[in-house]
Amino acid sequence: MIPKDTATATPIIQAEPIEISVLAALELKRLNLACLIDVRQRFELEIEGEIDGAYSLPLFKFKHLLGHELTQEEQEILDEDSPGMEDIQNFLTMINDLHNSKDCIVVCVCNSGKRSINAARLLRLLGYHRAFSLIGGYRAMREAMVTELPRPKAGASTR
User: Fold this and answer.
1) What is the pLDDT of residues 11-23, one digit of tens each?
2) The CATH classification of domain 35-147, taken from the options 3.40.50.300, 2.30.42.10, 3.30.1370.10, 3.40.250.10
3) 152 CB-near residues (< 8 Å, 6+ apart)
């Protein structure tokens, strides 16, 4: 039996590290050992930008597809009807493909790294033990990618 937080009745995941650094995640992705799941909402992708090669699966839709009850705020943000059987099958096919066929380490990404922890925990509850949350989220990833860009040499033209 999985222990539950008595205040929220949600399962508690113990001890194992669930977060991964931006540099480690980017290196694993570069080596084709990791797949990124972007758990931000559609409007966030439009405002902040999408991640090349990431699978988009908003956390609230993810929770809803798994049959978890959403808070009032989550439901308002999701603002969708209950998922149909096809939605659930597509979701499970995608996750199984990442986990089994591609044998990927799954890295969940949100804006700041908070919602992605919940997504990684949900995946681990489903048996995907190589699911992680990106520390600092998309913002940290974007910042790391900017600092990795090659800089012009001294005296070189920047045109």
Assistant:
1) 544 557 899 999 9
2) 3.40.250.10
3) 158
